[in-house]
Amino acid sequence: MSNVPFFESEKIADRTYKIKNAFTGGFDTLCYLAEGDDYALLIDTMYGFGDLNSYVKTLTDKPVKVVNTHGHWDHVGGNFHFDSCYIPVRDISTFQGYIGFPKEQLFELAKNSAKDEYKDLLVLDENFAGTHPMKVYPVSDGDVFDLGGRKLEVVDCGGHTPGHIVLIDDMTRICFAGDVCNGNTLLEFDDCLPVSVYLENLKRLKTYAPRFDMMYGGHEIFDSSIIDEGIETAAKVIAGTDDNVKETGMTGKDICYAYKKNDDGSNEGGHRFNMSYDPERVIGDDVRGIVIK
Ligand SMILES: [Fe+2]
């Protein structure tokens, strides 16, 4: 039995918790639990280190539904401790692509991510669920989770992934934001949308900003003014007036960053927002629809 503190949580608002893995070091990945009178909504599930289903039952006695802001592994891995989830319609195939991922590999990832004092205490037990088919319900713009006395509205903001959503909670004035807009917004992957489309989506998200103060993201937390920085930066990239820092991206491709970074990883010039992008895909269309072969 793994004898490590898998999770820790913090109450960030009335009936609202931020949850993260407690045994890991370095870069945080976050998820959130919002409770209503009828059910609680778990927003993202992190990598899948630890039995998140059992953990959230210590925070709420309501039934729990799972929704993902987007289909990336570090936000959906814990879905496999549940038997159903809601996923942005355009990200479902990404999620389904993880089925078959061996739990031994997940365990190795957990060990590599663990703080030194916990590395040898991790055991490949039921805290690491094998991936399995489950009921997947699509969500998209305008859908509403009515938790009972509390409603969270889905707003599309594709860019980082084609289907990326945020959830706006009028009760707490929080926008649960996933990876939509942060200090290291990745638009470098082949399935990211062009920067020009991302910019239009950020401008649209900005029209919702009067309804929230804070953006609780999948890795970082900002006030809503980070959207303005995102809009300004994406516009600079399109105009060719960003720093245009050439780098090798996470998948080995030649990519660019909008702003130079300091040695400590922060962005030069005091910028809170930064983004990577594919220089070949700055201007483009949002091509809806996939080719099924
Ligand atoms: Fe992501």
Average pLDDT taken over every residue: 96
> What is the terminal separation in angstroms?
44 Å
Low-confidence blocks of residues: none
Rg over CA atoms, rounded to whole Å, is 19 Å
What oligomeric state do these chains adopt? Answer: single chain
The CATH homologous superfamily is called Ribonuclease Z/Hydroxyacylglutathione hydrolase-like
Might you state the CATH topology name?
A: Metallo-beta-lactamase, Chain A
Summarize the structure.
The chain is α+β, with helices and mostly antiparallel strands and 293 residues long.
Q: How would you sum up this structure, described in words?
A:
The protein is an alpha+beta fold and 293 residues long. The protein has a single domain, classed as Ribonuclease Z/Hydroxyacylglutathione hydrolase-like (Metallo-beta-lactamase, Chain A). The protein has seven helices and 17 strands. The chain has helices at residues 52-56, 73-76, 92-96, 103-113, 116-119, 195-206, 226-239; strands spanning 7-13, 16-21, 30-35, 40-43, 64-67, 84-88, 135-139, 144-146, 151-156, 165-169, 174-178, 185-187, 214-217, 221-223, 245-248, 254-257, 275-277. The strands form four sheets. The protein has a six-stranded mixed β-sheet, with no helix packed on it. A five-stranded mixed β-sheet has the order 1-2-3-4-5. A four-stranded mixed β-sheet has the order 12-17-16-15, with helices on one face. α6 packs antiparallel against α7 (226-239). Residues 70, 72, 160, 179 line the site of fe (ii) ion. Fe (ii) ion binds next to loops.
